[in-house]
Amino acid sequence: MNSFVRQPFVFEAMISKNPVIKYEWRKNAKPIDQSLDNIKVNRIGKRSILYVESVNESQAGVYSLVSNNSNARDEASFNLAVLPVQSSSTSFSVNFFHYIC
Questions:
Q1: Residue 16 sits in a domain of what CATH number?
Q2: How many CB atoms lie within 10 A of CB 75?
């Protein structure tokens, strides 16, 4: 997946496990630091949403969502490439990922 520098990036996952006990977003195999101002993780029912307000070059990498309950553990990943800003670009990058386990 690609996003331009200084553009917002939204990634949504649908978790079908019942019951979902725990889930965690990771970047390059490390838990994402949600205390950073421009990164938010929200959970709405079985949807988990990773929102990056303004992407920068340091946010390129492999992102994954790990979910587990007493019966199973599952993980899905994607690679985020951050592209240089285009002067005429006013697009909003919205990427949806359907995660089923």
A1: 2.60.40.10
A2: 13
pTM equals 0.78
Q: Give the pLDDT confidence of 20-72 residue by residue, as tens digits.
A: 678 899 999 999 987 877 889 988 888 888 988 888 899 899 999 988 888 88
**Distance separating alpha carbons of residues 70 and 8, to the nearest angstrom:** 35
The tokens describing 32, both together, are 């994402």
Q: Which residues of 25-59 are buried (b: 16+ CB within 10 A; e: fewer)?
A: bbbeeeebeeeeeebeeeeeebebebebeebeeeb
Rounded distance, CA 101 to CA 95, Å? 19
Q: Is residue 101 part of a domain?
A: no
Integer Cα distance of 89 and 98 in angstroms: 27
Instruction: Report the domain count for the chain.
Output: 1
